[in-house]
Amino acid sequence: MLSSTPAAAAPSRRAWWSGLALVVLFLLMVQARLWAPYWDTRNVQAILTWDVMGYYLYLPAQFIYHDLSYQKFVADIMREYSPSGSFYQAFQVPGGPAGALVMKYTCGLAVLFTPFFWLGHWAAGLLDYPQDGFSAPYQIAIAFGGLLYALLGLGLLRRVLLRYFSDVVTALVLVLLVLGSNYFQYAVFDGAMAHNYLFTLYALLLWLTIRWHEQPGLKWAAAIGLTLGLMILIRPSEAVAGLIPVLWGVTSIGAARQKLLLALRRWPDVLVAGFFLVLGVLPQLLYWKWATGHFLFYSYQEQSFNFLRPHTYQVLFSYKKGWLLYTPLMVLPLIGMVILWRRNRALAVPVVAYFLINLWVVSAWDIWWYGGSIGQRALVQSYAVLSVPLAYFLTWLLEPQRRRALQMAVAVLVVLLIDLNLFQHWQYMASIIHAEEMNRDYYWAVFNKTKPGQADYALLDVPNRLPQPERDYDLRTLGKLDFENEAPSAENGFNAEVGYYSKQSFHSEAARQYSPALTVRAGDARAQPGQWLRASCQVYSDYGAWNTKLVMSIERDGKNVQWNGMRLQNNLSVNRAWNQPWFYAPVPDDVQPNDVIKVLVLNENGSPSFIDDLQIDLLTPKPAAGTNLAAAQ
Fold first, then answer.
1. Cα–Cα distance for residue pair 229/77, rounded to 1 Å
2. First to last CA, the chain
3. Segment (H or E) for 599
């Protein structure tokens, strides 16, 4: 073994606990995948949707439709399967022929999808499904292909950990990563996204790095280079993974010099690793050259990094997507880094350096929340590396000299955090935890709830909640707009076919942004500070009033002094039935008699829906509630 290599123990031949843990965890993951299949539904919860559609599109475009450039088949796919709200996964080639497209996303995942794409294509033909690249057999093949990649990744990680840690510690690490973190989401339900595959490649990179340092050779060097190339091919920012083999075994400046001398002595290995790294990214370079005329092309358009102003606090702690808020168990590997640094500097340097620089890169992306996800999905692949400090923490905790009370306290905490993680995964899959727009008020409103109410869902958009239960207020209706006396026509949007109490309503659609407004003067309403306003309406839609809001504003001299808008679609909405969404807003402290209270519906290029009974209510605290007007603010 090289002197610069971290000390590794011989792998145990009787690693029963970790082997059993691996098998049981995989079976649980398969069961969870079967619990929420989604692959035969024509909606956005299928597998090959949104970003994944962009990763995958190379395969059907090239091998089924033979139209990688213009992708004219996509219109039919969008109409049949609705894989995303719009076709953003490719765009017009700058300066290219009209209609010629270039993919937004790189082709790394398409390479790894390939065997399962062909399996799905074969099954679609055999079972008489459309061989269009998106029917159920393709969805199923890609979904279970992701689970097999997850099994491979966890198996590789087990082999890595067994070289340094006991069988029990290795088993515990596997259990905590799968059940206690958002890895579960991206290995099971969103297994076709990049994070599951990158986790497996990180585990492979760790294994190959260990083997090269134990016995340097061209085959290990080639494998390291190709693995890094595939990681970059999937996500170019994963180039930061190169720190792991480069810094492996480096404990000091002197050790860094020894590592450099080793690299110089083994220069054929370095050249071979570099060659295979380039070979790994070559498919993308050739595609860009073919599609755009340039070997290097930035396909993310207006999205970019700002390394001077990273969003590190938001990435770690925000209610929107805070890593440690939604995956609090990952505090343990952060504590473990201290133990790792003290006990094994040769492992600590590459692990800590990788974690810090990767966190910086992840935080520097301008869309730091990375779209729809539970917690920080961009850090999921790094859990393979963070398993090392997590294992050091568990090893330290299980040492005989540790107090029993401390061990029991940590065990109870870990069980509670696993329970929290699995429950919040259920909330996420049930759309209680919102994929993109969480905030503090809403997070705590739905915390530990299986059936939130309208007052809870309103907090996603309106940061107001009555300080007392509604029964402690006197409610007075200030006005209602029911559209009963309007002449129906296609031009004005009034409809005589569907209505709440009658057959009359207003038809909201993308081409008609604003509904008629219900207006009330504050003076006529006798509105005072300490009172509350409630805006409500009745809404009917076939598949949800998406991207449509109920708006209540207070205007003074034609300018808004208060504005609130709440989405009309939430988990309480029932398709093809009348629903009543509502929200509260306080009367402003400086309210004036001529202020105009206005309620309307705003359609932001959303789905069509029918609106009826726009209504404004005024809530005044009851004296018996022990609250006067001033204290109720």
1. 31
2. 71
3. strand 596-603
- C-alpha to C-alpha distances, 338 to 9, 132, 171, 251, 381, nearest whole angstrom: 21, 52, 22, 15, 21
Q: Tokens representing 336?
A: 């473990």
Domain count for the chain, please give it: 2
Could you tell me the CA-to-CA distances from 301 to 67, 88, 92, 94, 305 in Å, in that order?
A: 23, 11, 11, 11, 12
In tens, the pLDDT along 157-202 reads 999 999 999 999 999 999 999 999 999 999 999 999 999 999 999 9
| Residue 630 in domain | no
* Same domain as 242, residue 96: yes
Q: Model confidence over 516-554: pLDDT tens digits? A: 999 999 999 999 999 999 999 999 999 999 999 999 999
Burial 547-574 (b: 16+ CB within 10 A, else e): bbbbbbbbbbeeeeebebbbbbbbeebe
Residues 283 and 360 in one domain: yes
Angstrom distance (rounded) from CA 247 to CA 245: 6
- Looking at residue 576, which CATH number applies to its domain? 2.60.120.260
Is the dihedral angle over the CA atoms 185, 188, 191, 196 positive or is it negative?
Answer: positive
| Largest Cα–Cα separation, the chain | 90
Same domain? For 485 and 393 the reply is no
Are residues 151 and 87 part of one domain?
A: yes
Instruction: Mark whether 458 and 421 lie in a shared domain.
Output: no
Is the residue at 447 inside a domain? no
pLDDT 10s digits, 314-368? 999 999 999 999 999 999 999 999 999 999 999 999 999 999 999 999 999 999 9
